[in-house]
Amino acid sequence: MQPTIFERIIAREIPSTIEFEDDRVIAIRDIAPSAPVHVLIIPKRVIRNVDDLSEQDTELIGHVFLVARDLARKYGVVDNGYRVVTNCNEHAGQTVFHLHFHLLAGEPLGRMNSRPPRSAGSTRSMLFEGGLLVIAAIALAAVFNSMNPRQIPWVKKEYERTQATQNDIQKYLAPPEATGQNKPVDVTVDQPTAAPTKTEAAAPTTTAAPAASPSAEKPKNTFVADPGKVLEIGYDAFVRLISTGSFHLIDARTPEKYSEGHIANAINIYGGEAQSRIPDIIQSPRDRVILIYCDGGECELSHHVADVLKQFGYGPIFIYTGGWAEWKTKH
Ligand code: 5GP
Questions:
Q1: What's the predicted TM-score (pTM) here?
Q2: Exposure letters 54-69 (e unless 16+ CB within 10 A, then b)
Q3: CA 32 to ligand 1 center in whole angstroms
C-alpha cells in the first residue's frame, strides 16, 4: 500500500512546519488552514482513522489530547477557546487516511450543528423536485384558468394603440347650433351601486346615458359611423366627447371595482367577459360614439372590449386611458 502523505511527512520525505514532535506524535501546521491556528496532531503509528483504533491506543489518544492542550496554551487560545476534531471516512470529510486531529483556534469557529452544504447529487434532486412542483403549479393554474369565467389570456395580446387627433374628435363634437346643445352634460361620479347583472347591462341603450341621451333632441345625422376605428384619448378629449351627451359609455373594469364607483351612465362590460357579452353588445344601436375606460394605464381590458365591438362593426370607439384613476382625481 502506498504511504500516506503524513507518513511521508513523518519520514521527512515531504517538508512541513513542525510545531511539536516526540516518539509518538508529530504536530504540523495544516497546509490549507481553516482557522488562524490550524495544527494537525498526527500519531506516528499507522492508524487509518478512529474506526481503526484498538485498546492498545487508549494511552496514545490521551497523549494526543495532552499535546493539543499544551499547544493551545502555547498559542494563548485557551481563554477564547479552541476545537479538537478528527474526521472518519467520507461523510466526515476525511481526505488523508492516516489518523490525525485538527487543533483549530484563533477566531469564532461556528457551531457544530450547522448543516453541511448539500452534495451535487442532492442539489440535482432538489432542482428536479422544484421543477416538478413548478410544472404541477402551472398545470393547476391552467385548469383553474380554463374553468374561470374571467379567464386570463395566456399570451398577452399586443393591441394597436393609436392616439386620436383633434380631427378624429372634432367631427363628433357637433356645433351647438346643429345639436341645440351648448350646455355640457353633467357627468358626475355615480354613488357606489351593485354591479349590473348581465341582463341589466344587456340594455346599454337605456343604461348608457339615460339622463344625457340626446336621441330626442339631437339630429341623427350628426353621428358618422367609422366601423372598426379604435383610438386612445386623454382626459380633455374624453370630457369634450361626454359633453356632447351622445355616447355609449362602457366601464371595462371588474364588476367589483365598478360597484365601488364608476363614471355616471357607464355600463359595466368587464374586459375579461366581453366575449360572453356579445349578445348584449350586438343589440346596442350604432348611433353614437363608444367611450370605454379602464383603471388607467395600458387599458388592456378596454382594448379587449373594443376588439369585440370592432368585430361587429362598431366604431368609432375611443378608449380613455387616464381611466377611473385620473377621472377620480380630476372630478
Ligand atoms: P482531513 O480532511 O483528512 O480531516 O484532513 C487532512 C488535512 O491535511 C487537511 O486539512 C489538509 O489541508 C491537510 N494536508 C493535506 N496535505 C498536506 C500536506 O502536504 N501538508 C500539510 N501540512 N497538510 C496537509
A1: 0.46
A2: eeebeebbebbeebbe
A3: 7
